[in-house]
Design brief:
The chain has a domain of 59 residues. 55% of the residues lie in helices and 0% in strands. It contains 5 helices and no strands.
């Protein structure tokens, strides 16, 4: 299980860019493969590998809450804002 703080420097840069740059997110959401995402990332100055993208996917999947966990926090906030970090990786 990979955690966000264990990601490579490139992986952390990728997530930082994805959370702060709408144009980068839009470009990534147009990608249909990891190879396209790598090329898109390079055009935004981030050199990332397939293995690093897979580590990011794993880390984000591991962060997903189950229905039971969502019920536990319903009505309260956990203080974690990833709203600007959504990248659709389902087509990769």
């Amino acid at each position: 299980m990979t955690q966000l703080h264990e990601l490579s420097i490139s992986g952390q840069a990728f997530l930082s860019k994805a959370s702060s740059d709408e144009a980068f997110r839009e470009r990534l959401n147009q990608c249909t493969s990891k190879e396209e995402a790598i090329k898109a990332s390079k055009s935004f100055g981030i050199d990332i590998t397939v293995d690093e993208l897979e580590a990011i996917e794993t880390a984000l999947e591991d962060m997903a809450l189950t229905d039971d966990q969502l019920d536990e926090v319903a009505g309260g906030g956990c203080g974690l804002d990833l709203s600007g970090c959504w990248v659709n990786t389902s087509g990769w």
